[in-house]
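User: structure tokens for this one?
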Amino acid sequence: MERDRRYRTDRECIIEDPSMAVGRAYGMIDDDAADASAVRATYFIDPEGVIRGVTWYPMTIGRSIDEMVRMLAALKRSADGSVLTPAGWQPGDDVLVPPAQTAETAIGDDAPADWFHQTQPDR
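Assistant:
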């Protein structure tokens, strides 16, 4: 069976943690927990070991692989801080320009009316 390349690249992978070693290392699971059944979450951890994103679901709701792939792409696209990705963003969709960081820039005479929601085509 050929694997779908969206779910694995040379730099990212989706792992299961049946031993709970990763969950315990990141403080997600109590040391005294017998299992991880209380945790139905997905954590996006960068190569430096920093948690960059989390999704958390009730036990009765399934997780979406498509949303995991979308979130990973959005995290990678916005990692350098030059753009923001709106909800539902997909690669190739317009991105958001980071808003002004000072009141003067946001409300000054030259400030556009939509300073908080400016889009631009993605590269």
